[in-house]
Write a structure and sequence with these properties.
The chain is of the alpha/beta class and 344 residues long. The chain has 2 domains: 4-183 and 237-267, NAD(P)-binding Rossmann-like Domain (Rossmann fold, 3-Layer(aba) Sandwich), CATH 3.40.50; 203-234 and 270-340, UDP-galactose 4-epimerase, domain 1, CATH 3.90.25.10. It has 11 helices and 13 strands. Strand 2 (28-33), helix 2 (41-50) and strand 3 (55-58) form a beta-alpha-beta unit. Helix 1 crosses helix 8, helix 5 runs parallel beside helix 6 and helix 9 packs across helix 11 (324-340). The structure holds uridine-diphosphate-N-acetylglucosamine (UD1). The site of uridine-diphosphate-N-acetylglucosamine has 21 residues, from helix 7 and strand 8.
Amino acid sequence: MKDKILVTGGAGYIGSHTVIELQSAGYEVVVIDNLSNSNVDVIDGIEKISGIRPAFEILDCNDCNGLKELFDKYPGIKGIIHFAASKAVGESVHKPLLYYRNNLVSLINLLELMPLYHVKGIVFSSSCTVYGQPDILPVDENAPIKPALSPYGNTKQINEEIIRDTIYSKIPYKSIILRYFNPIGAHPTAEIGELPNGVPQNLVPFLTQAAMGIRGELSVFGDDYDTPDGSCIRDYINVVDLAKAHVIAVDRMLKGQSEADVETFNLGTGRGVSVLELINSFEKATGVKVPYKIVGRREGDIEKVWANPAHANNVLGWTAKETLEDTLRSCWKWQLKLRERGIM
Ligand code: UD1
């Protein structure tokens, strides 16, 4: 058995897929989650896939005393992957304080506790949102950090600064910052996938629920952007591919292979896809129609962004492998599974 890793937000979408990959690489995993945007059944899904039930505690990372009790209860945690955060761009415009509290206090708590409990490193879930609207596409890690377009985006920028300032203060641990583009898809077993609580704020869960007839029409937010078909462009990355990058990052950090105390990597495919193209690809890949209508722009949205993933490809030896079509088929398989289970 390899080292013990704490995964915050491990019952969430990317977190749960990462727990599976960590377990299959031999790591012992402790999951915490406040279940604000996830469900305890996810832990059953993880156990079904890997055959191993991770240690699980319902805990909010804003609860510093609760975190101390956790580190006492599970001694010897060597690394943290910090997913737990609020993540919806649109919601953050309307609830900025929720975003600042959830996304900043939780990270500060973890960083403060790490040296006390001899944790050697933290992998942080950042986002391409830190680039704002890049001047040059595809965007690489050296692109300037622009003023954020949403409170959510701002929290990710501040989080990155907090990590850099802390590590440069000669604290004895390392960090790898992973800037995700748009994660989509579900585990090939369809035992876990993306299931936000309530009405989905992001594209793919809304799309599959609309295709299933649960949500009415999907609203396409804007067709007057400066893009070939007028809808926004993103880089949609398969969630299992993304999860695998976390294992590589943890291995690298704990084996002392990092080239700097803080390293930053883009995780994307390198391919930009518009909202309308995504709908088309879904219909082609699954044969299922998506009811949709064009509506006005959503506040805080970036027009177009896709990754230059060369740094992660070359340094981590990681590449996004799954095709968009296979990934969209996995989304639909997951939606069908939710129906079969009577959840959606
Ligand atoms: C998502 C993530 C964010 C991450 C970012 C990286 C969520 C909730 N948000 O934000 O954490 O930092 O990727 O790029 O996971 N759209 C519609 N109709 C809808 C929903 C979305 O047209 O009902 C459009 C949006 O305008 C956007 C695209 O689909 O152009 C993707 O939107 P969304 O899935 O919400 O992702 P991001 O806002 O990019």
